[in-house]
Every structure is written in C-alpha cells, then in structure tokens.
Amino acid sequence: MTPPRCEKATILLCDDIREEADGRQSLIGVHGPTLKVARLPYTHRGLSVFVQIVNPADAFPGVQFELIAPDGSVVAEGAGETPGASVSPGTSSVHSNYRIHLFPIRLALPGAYVARVWFDRAADVGVEAQLMVTVDPPAVL
Questions:
Q1: Of 86, 128, 129, 134, which residue is 20 to 30 A from 32 by alpha carbon distance?
Q2: Which pLDDT value is given to residue 127?
Q3: What one-character DSSP code corresponds to residue 9?
C-alpha cells in the first residue's frame, strides 16, 4: 500500500462521530492503540472511523475501509465520502475529513487488528493503523 501524497494522514477509531450545528465534528469515545474487552467474542455496538488528510496533492472523493482480524478475515468494511475540504483558520493548511460508521462489529480473537483505509483502492493508495484487542476481565470483589 502506498501512502497518499499529503503532509499527514490520520485514522482515528471511536464509538461515534457527530456533526455539530456549526459544522465541527465531535469524536466520542476515541480508542487508543488498545481496545480492552471483558471477554471474547465481543460485539461492539458501533465503531466509527475518522480519516483526515492534510494538504493532499490529489483529490479523493471518498474512501473505503476494512477492519482485518489477526487471522486475516475481514471483520468489517465500509465507505465514506468527504463533506468537503476546509482551510484551518490562520493557516493555509487544507484538511479533507472522511467518516465511516460501522454497526455492529463482532470481535472474536485477541491480538492485532488492522484498520485499512484506501483513498484509491485500484492504485493501492491508502493508510493503515493497528488496533490491539485484549481481554481485561472485570475485577471480582
């Protein structure tokens, strides 16, 4: 996979993405590199994917997404369109934001999942991030 020609590309996985009345996007329940669950299999009620590219050299009308389990199986897939590019106030940086909502997602295995986003799947242009799923049972009192 070749990264897009841009200054920076970011993937964030979270529970939800909401668009505010003023156009801002609020990311709810942002996951770090590890998702701790009480037991497996675990069904996540919904996962949202926020993708941002800064100063892209090419225009991408949409993105495609896959979440791949440690055994190589595709757990979830989806697509998103950009609501348009915006310029950061006080700078000349152009940001293109994409969001994808996936409902529900069943995680059956512990280990490293790969979040893969294609800006141009035919040309294999995209980015990847890793999500480590671990079992952290609740403490017994």
A1: 86
A2: 94
A3: E
Confidence label for 19 from pLDDT (cuts 50, 70 and 90): confident
Do residues 49 and 80 touch, judged by C-beta distance below 8 A? yes
| 31/4 Cα distance (integer angstroms) | 24
Q: Please, what are the domains in the chain?
A: 8-135 (2.60.40.1930)
In this structure, the strands spanning 125-135 and 74-81 are unpaired
Beta-carbon contacts of 64 under 8 Å, excluding residues fewer than 6 positions away, are 77, 78, 79, 117, 118, 121
Alpha helices in the chain (DSSP H): none
Q: Report CA-CA distances (Å) from 36 to 44, 51, 103, 110, 128.
A: 11, 22, 18, 10, 20
Handedness of CA 18, 93, 129, 139 (dihedral sign): negative
Q: Answer whether residue 17 shows pLDDT above 80.
A: yes
For 27-31, 55-59, 62-66, 111-115, which range has the lowest pLDDT when averaged over its residues? 55-59
- Is the predicted pLDDT of residue 92 greater than 80, yes or no? no
Give dist(CA 115, CA 51) in Å, integer: 11
